[in-house]
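>> received
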Amino acid sequence: MERLKGKWLLLFKFIKGNRALVTVTLISGLVYNIFTLLIPIGIGRFYEFNFDITSQRLKLLESLSFLNSGSFTIFLLFFILVVILRFIFEYINRYLISIIGESFAKNLREQLFEHQLQISTSIYDQKGIGKYLLRYSGDLKSIQDYITKGLFKYTQDLILILFLLATISFIDIHVGAISTVLILLANILLGFINKALYTISVSRRNQRSGLLTFVNTRLRAMASIKAFNKYYIEQKRYAKRSERLYQTGKKYQAVANLIFSVIPAFTYLMIALLMWYVYHVKTTMGDTFNQTSFLILILLVISFLPILRRTLRVSIVWKLGSISFEKLLNIFSFEAENTLPSPKIDLADKAISFNDVSFNYPSSNNLVFDKLNISFSPGGITAVIGGAGTGKTTLLNLILKVYQPVSGEIHYGTHRHNELSEKTIRRNIVVISDDFPLYGKSVYEAIVYSRKEKMVKRATKLLNELQQFEDAKNKLQLQDSIGDLGKSLTSGQKRILMYARALLSNKPWLLIDEPLKGLKQETSSLIRDKLNLLSTNKSIIVFDSEVPGGLLVGQVYSQKDNTFTKK
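>> returned
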């Protein structure tokens, strides 16, 4: 129920913010419907002109002077004008509805991406990234159809159906009653069919999402698949999932196409009943049904076919759109970062301390830390040492507030971790680690977030300094491409760019995982000297399996029994 409210709240906010566009769209649709209704009436009037027949039933024409003109030339000119105006207003209406759909999808995908950037890392650790890719393609398309076809076009079609039924009833009340009853019966029948379709649609959408996640995972692990010759195994796994989706797809198509087939059947049934009624009037009641009236009724009923096809199919659009809305609103409900105030505080001369901090990953009950107490003083270099799996990376992520402790407190100066937003903390801390990859098209985009000329000069100078001992073929320029998340770079190039990115940000705290990893000997010496120099006015924490040689380390913490102790 809450998510249902959320859907309508999103729609209401959008309509409120686009009142003019929505109003013009509805007016153009109304005018377009009126001209649509005039065309079959005009054809009936032509029938009167051509065969010199008059109909007492068509008193409606008396109020339409241009159709009731005694001059065929004037009538024809006005009829052509109606056709042209119908074309113009149909184009305007279709275009505006499409713009509404595009605009709503744009707003929603921007909100979605903004929120996904803020979602807690622990959520992604549990669910994976690939699971969310479908939200940006299939789900947004279904929601766009929900807005355009399910709301605006359906509303206009409903108004047109009411106009058509009113016109038919004006010509003959009995035919109007027959048409109304048949439309109601069609809606009741399709309502039952759509219940079955909804269940199948949910299953089909979930299987598609799962298949996309499977493909995304395997493509990211392509090197392992190739190295261990797992082609056949993964093909079989994919084929199994694909078969399940195929079987569900067959069920979906069986029910969906039943709906598509029922719609014209009901329309033609309306024509059959109209023919029966005309015949019944003639043979039983001894009355002759006017030819012009009959022709207009047939044309009006035939006009129902495309409109009914859209209105009775709209339930599929509603179902798929509702599923997609539910999935997106589910993402919006996930725990997000930066919900706390983000004051600008300076941690340059403040200690970072852990007080009885315990932590375990959501997917495990095993504690990584059990009442950890550790303090990092401002200034100088602190080393945290331990083997693989001892919690060094977890400690780094806790300092950055990527993760939060399950108990205990982390203090940043006088502030507790639950008093500061992630944004505030990260304004003061920068990280160098393979877990925080480079991204962007070029070297410049990977290391700098500003386009100012001053920053370009700083970046060029720093990059040249860090690369001074590299081979000429490995030296990078700011405009060079780095590939997807730095895939085109060597490990040494990646590490140099990570240092450049961190140093250009000029933050008071540096967290460095394996500081000399992947660097050639001369560059390692350069980095050591630079870190030693920086330690006079910055606070540096390095994480490694042993204390890196050559660094002026003031404090050392080593791992033991789910905690770190000072050596």
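>> The chain has two domains: 2-332, 352-566.
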